[in-house]
Design brief:
- The complex is a heterodimer of chains A (391) and B (691).
- Chain A has 391 residues and is mainly alpha-helical.
- Chain A has one domain.
- Chain A contains 15 helices and three strands.
- In chain A, strands 1-2-3 form a three-stranded antiparallel beta sheet, with helices on one face.
- In chain A, helix 3 runs antiparallel to helix 13 and helix 6 packs antiparallel against helix 7.
- Chain A is globular.
- Chain B is of the alpha+beta class.
- Among the domains of chain B are: 189 residues, Penicillin-binding protein 2a (Domain 2) (Alpha-Beta Complex), CATH 3.90.1310.10; 50 residues, no CATH class.
- In chain B, strands 2, 3, 4, 5, 10, 17 and 18 form a seven-stranded mixed beta sheet that branches. In chain B, strands 12-11-21-20-19 form a five-stranded antiparallel beta sheet, sandwiched between helices. Chain B has a three-stranded antiparallel beta sheet with strand order 1-8-9.
- Chain B is elongated and about 135 Å long.
- Classes of the chains: A mainly alpha (391), B alpha+beta (691).
- Chain A: This is Peptidoglycan glycosyltransferase RodA.
- Chain A: Peptidoglycan polymerase that is essential for cell wall elongation.
């Protein structure tokens, strides 16, 4: 809790000077990568929705406008998180965590609404809806960083009590999300927990035990039939999409066709025939990568992957240079989250991962996901501006 | 930062890098290496081939009058695939559609279910991927409603289509000969190359019976293609490629609407009067054939039906009511599929067989009232005795006992009950030469072969029936004995005989065969061809209904020819002699009554009556004829099942047909100078005949 006192010690003038210096200390590579992905994402959202909205007689730019609004709000939220001293967050973590859990419980009540088989949204009127599980990711990262990043005397890793506490606190929202059911986000939680535990220095047997437990849980879920039939079908459809081309395999097959037909250089932005014919469902959200695959080809799609890679690289660099373990862990959690979500999302459109409902970070349309992504980047920046002067 | 954390961060670097490399590698494979494959799939995905059905050709009579033509109709169709994709499986749409069409949802659902085992009509026998027509008589206003409010009727289309129409010129229906159309089945569709029907093609029909089936390829035409661009909902967004359909050719038949109509009327009239006389007269057939060419001028079958019931689907009730057993199964053409014992009309074969076997053509033979064949007495019709007579008189008065004598003596010469190694069986062999027992090869489907019983057939039949016969011989018929002990005893005796020696070609079999009785079966068309051969000097023609296929503009696609048939192994003098005998039948013989007052000066008709006894049923009435007797042009045969004697039912019908053809008895002649039109009629596409 020393950090709070340190900030308090400066006067008004000094604070502003510090903030101006902080702006210079921002990771501008990271900012540029996020902006580039946001611009590309907006263009792809336009391509995915223009024809559909026109056909439906609605404002053809409707999704684009909302997406830009989401991005503006997202940048503001990110900026806010950046300028806040991230160490201050520790004070708010219990509130953040509690709010996330309340939100997750709320979606399970009649307040929640179902989209694509997952009961993940709360409609708040005016055409807006909130997806608490996106914010829960942020909560999870900060909470775990707080528990596992507790300053330790001489110990290389967190003690048993800390690990168990972290697992228990992560388990509650994970279970709530599993109930929605939202398999994708649950898997993101698993990736974040594993990654942060590893980097926090937890003993190997914890990691091995967790991995083994995960496998066991997966086996149990399958063998006890806890998955809904449609989930199981979606899960297995990616192995052989031609088995049920009209049903579960439809998304996978249409996604592969759209991406594959893009070739090396694509058909040109707004010129994708598969996209214009909206053969791929959920194309502006979870399957947005298929639009880039078809219209921008290998060149454009690889660029998106590399930009996301750039963000992860900067994130890991920030983790390495962080002033304290808490900062390292926050950055690690964000990277694990983004890395797994990217791999899962792109992987499912390429047919190497099962279909789950996860958006592509910074590219997909979606308010909550955009906000959560921007907050995550804000966290990275916050850690970055307060990094150690020398490594 | 401690070293463990640092090391694990490095591991994380590597892990993240590896994941991204996997994605990039997979992306490269899909887009750069397999790009061509996916581009092809994408193109298939985006376009759909619509088959534009070709207008089916007409079926015309010999003067170009249409027997079958097309009318345009607004057809409402339902797409099963689209229904299945809707949330309630189309229930709401079908309810709305039913209200618009004035029917019930249940009725519509029955119409669009697929036929299969255990599914009663109405059901859809065609491809499940085709829109299924549910109404082809919808008025334009309602069709317009459906077309304009597509959002209310997803999966329902209303399109202008051509449907078959049967104008029945000169009262000629010829239902069984024309046949009918039915939706093509998926297997048939798969077999047709290059015709992948998806979506919008409308019902593709295929000829299922009659000329529609035999000349299906000629009539069908070549469907056109339209490659359209579609979105994921299957909505058409544009046309990529188009090829117009080529309409089908029209079939010019040798059927003459006038003669056909007259034959149908004569058949109908004589069955009516036979029924008045107390006969059951459940079925009949009339055939008119050009004896020189084998072209069929008229082919009538009774009972008949209206082929237009096939368009727009038929319900099980309709099917039963119109086409079922109670209605006498009118789909069966009695002329080509009906098999009946020919009775005395068969004697033209037996006379030639006897003469061929050495009996003197000019000889005189006794015609007693009864003749003992082995131990059994075979009698003339009503036991009449005529004294000694020539073969000419034997044909005129239809003496049976002369033929029993020939058959029995020939049978004895073949060894009787202990047959020689290679028995000659002259009557059997000759019957085959006259074309009995084999299909004529007419251009109609499902023709039956009839039956000439012989030694092999007897053995096969015995093998098939001996079990029940031997049981009857052993146990008798106690059930029948309760009410009719005499009959039971008779049946037991017959069963015993059949059980013991049913495999043998017995004297009775030979005798029965010689007069067209017993196990002999012929089709009316076979008999007509035999009489045509008798009339034309011994050429066994192959009957044809189709004359030519012509294009819509009237130009000839192809002439339809028949292969040359075999010659009868009968001396022309013998044929002339038989013709002479048959000339007498209509004047002083068995048909003299039926032809009383007939204008023989205008056209001399020669013919032979036949009255075939059928066990447990009324007699089959036959009259087989040709005319003019001196220079034959036509063979006319009428058969009435359970119609009584040949002289009372069939002969008057034949007379009525000739009178209509030649314009006798105050009627207007259907044929100019008794001749059929020469050459093909000029045809315009709407089916109006020109000269």
């Amino acid at each position: 809790m020393n950090g709070i006192g340190a900030v308090d010690g400066y006067g008004e003038h000094a604070r502003w000077r510090r903030r101006a210096a902080g702006l210079r200390r921002l990771d501008w590579t990271l900012v540029l990568a996020v902006v580039a992905l946001s611009v590309i994402g907006t263009l792809l959202v336009r391509s995915a929705t223009f024809q559909l909205l026109t056909d439906q007689g609605r404002d053809p730019e409707g999704f684009v406008k909302k997406n830009v609004l989401n991005l503006v709000i997202g940048f503001c939220l990110g900026g806010l998180v950046t300028v806040l001293d991230y160490r201050l967050l520790r004070a708010y973590v219990p509130i953040l965590y509690g709010a996330a859990c309340v939100g997750l419980i709320a979606v399970l009540t009649p307040l929640g609404s179902t989209v694509n088989g997952s009961h993940s949204w709360i409609v708040i009127g005016g055409g807006f809806q909130v997806q608490p599980s996106e914010f829960a990711k942020v909560g999870l990262v900060v909470l775990l960083a707080m528990i596992l990043g507790e300053p330790r005397d001489g110990e290389v890793g967190p003690g048993r009590r800390d690990v168990l506490l972290a697992l228990a606190l992560a388990g509650v929202p994970a279970a709530l999300i599993m109930l929605q059911p939202d398999l994708g986000t649950t898997l993101v939680f698993v990736a974040v927990v594993l990654g942060m535990l590893a980097v926090s220095g937890a003993r190997k047997r914890w990691l091995a035990g967790l991995a083994g437990g995960g496998v066991l849980a997966a086996v149990l879920v399958f063998s006890l039939g806890l998955l809904k039939p449609y989930q199981l079908a979606r899960f297995t459809a990616f192995l052989d999409p031609s088995a049920d081309p009209r049903g579960a395999g439809y998304n996978t097959q249409q996604a592969r066709i759209a991406i594959g037909s893009g070739g090396g250089f694509g058909k040109g932005l707004f010129h994708g025939e598969q996209t214009a014919g909206h053969f791929v469902p959920e194309q502006q959200t979870d399957f947005i990568f298929t639009v880039s695959g078809e219209e921008l080809g290998f060149l454009g799609s690889a660029a998106i992957i590399l930009l996301l890679g750039l963000i992860m690289w900067r994130g890991l660099r920030i983790a390495t240079q962080a002033a304290d373990l808490f900062g390292t862990l926050v950055a690690t959690g964000v990277v694990c989250w983004l890395a797994f979500q990217t791999f899962e999302n792109v992987g499912m459109t390429l047919g190497i991962m099962p279909v789950t409902g996860l958006p592509l970070p910074f590219v997909s349309y979606g308010g909550s996901a955009t906000f959560a992504g921007m907050i995550a980047v804000g966290l990275l920046q916050a850690v970055h501006v307060r990094r150690r002067p020398f490594d | 930062m401690n070293s463990r954390t640092h090391f694990r961060l490095v591991v994380l670097y590597v892990l993240v890098g590896a994941l991204l490399l996997v994605l990039l590698g997979r992306l490269w494979t899909m887009q750069v290496l397999d790009g061509d494959h996916y581009r092809r799939v994408a193109a298939d995905n985006r376009t759909r081939d619509i088959v534009v059905p070709a207008v089916r050709g007409l079926i015309l009579d010999d003067q170009g009058r249409p027997l079958v033509r097309n009318r345009t109709a607004l057809v409402v169709s339902v797409d099963r695939t689209s229904m299945a994709r809707q949330k309630d499986r189309g229930a709401a749409v079908l309810t709305r559609l039913a209200a618009t069409l004035g029917t019930t949802r249940d009725a519509l659902e029955k119409k669009i279910r697929l036929c299969g085992p255990g599914v009663q009509r109405p059901c859809w026998p065609g491809s499940p991927y085709q829109p299924i027509p549910v109404d082809d008589r919808v008025d334009p206003k309602r069709a317009l409603q459906i077309m304009e409010r597509q959002e209310d009727f997803p999966g329902v289309t209303a399109q202008v289509q051509a449907v078959r129409e049967y104008p029945e010129p000169a009262g000629a229906s010829a239902g069984q000969a024309l046949g009918y159309l039915q939706p093509i089945t998926q297997e048939e569709l798969d077999r047709r190359k290059g015709l992948k029907v998806t979506g919008y093609s409308g019902a593709d029909l295929i000829g299922r019976d009659g000329l529609e089936a035999i000349y299906d390829t000629d009539l069908r035409g070549e469907p056109g293609f339209r490659k359209v661009l579609v979105d994921s909902q299957g909505r058409v967004t544009g046309t990529a490629q188009e090829q117009a359909p080529a309409p089908g050719g029209s079939l010019v038949t040798s059927l003459d609407a006038g003669v056909q109509g007259a034959a149908e009327k004569a058949l109908h009239d004589t069955i009516g009067s036979a029924r008045k006389q107390g006969h059951k007269a459940d079925a009949g057939a009339a055939v008119v054939m050009d004896v020189q060419t084998g072209r069929v001028v008229a082919l009538a079958s009774y009972p008949t039906y209206d082929p237009s019931i096939w368009t727009g689907g038929i319900s099980q009730d309709e099917y039963e009511a119109l086409l079922g057993k109670k209605k006498g199964q009118p789909l069966i053409s009695r002329a080509t599929q009906g098999q009946f014992a020919p009775g005395s009309t068969f004697k033209v074969s037996s006379v030639s067989a006897a003469v061929g076997d050495g009996y003197d053509l000019k000889g005189t033979y006794p015609c007693p009232g009864s003749y003992n064949v082995g131990s059994r007495a075979f009698t003339n019709f009503e036991g009449e005795s005529h004294g000694d007579m020539s073969l000419h008189t034997a044909l005129v008065v239809s003496c049976d006992t002369i033929f029993y004598k020939f058959a029995y003596e020939e049978w004895l010469r073949d060894g009787g009950t202990k047959p020689k190694k290679n028995p000659r069986d002259p009557m059997v062999e000759m019957a085959r030469k006259w074309g009995f027992g084999t299909r004529t090869g007419v251009d109609l489907p499902s023709e039956t072969a009839g039956r000439i019983p012989d030694r092999t057939w007897k053995r096969d039949y015995w093998n098939a029936t001996k079990k029940s016969d031997c049981k009857g011989a052993k146990d008798g018929y106690p059930e029948i004995a309760k009410t009719d002990p005499t009959r039971a005893a008779y049946l037991k005796a017959v069963a015993a005989e059949n059980c013991a020696e049913g495999y043998m070609w017995r004297a009775g079999d030979a005798a029965n065969l010689s007069v067209g009785q017993g196990d002999v079966l012929v089709t009316p068309l076979q008999l007509t061809r035999a009489y045509a051969a008798l009339a034309n000097g011994g050429r066994l023609v192959v009957p044809r209904l189709g004359q030519a296929v012509v294009r819509p503009d009237g130009s000839l696609v192809r002439r339809i020819t028949a292969p040359a048939g075999p010659k009868l192994p009968v001396d022309p003098k013998v044929l002339a002699y038989i013709r002479g005998g048959l000339t007498g039948v209509t004047k002083s013989g068995t048909a003299a009554g039926a032809f009383n007052g007939f204008d023989f000066k205008k056209v001399d008709v020669a013919g032979k009556t036949g009255t075939a006894e059928v066990y447990g049923k009324d007699d089959t009435s036959w009259f087989a004829s040709f005319a003019p007797a001196k220079k034959p042009k036509y063979a006319v045969v009428v058969m009435v099942s359970q119609g009584g004697t040949g002289a009372t039912s069939a002969a008057p019908a034949v007379r009525q047909i000739y009178e209509a053809m030649y314009g006798l008895g105050g009627k207007k002649a259907l044929l100019k100078n008794g001749a059929l039109p020469t050459g093909l009629p000029r045809v315009s596409y709407d089916g109006k005949a020109g000269k």
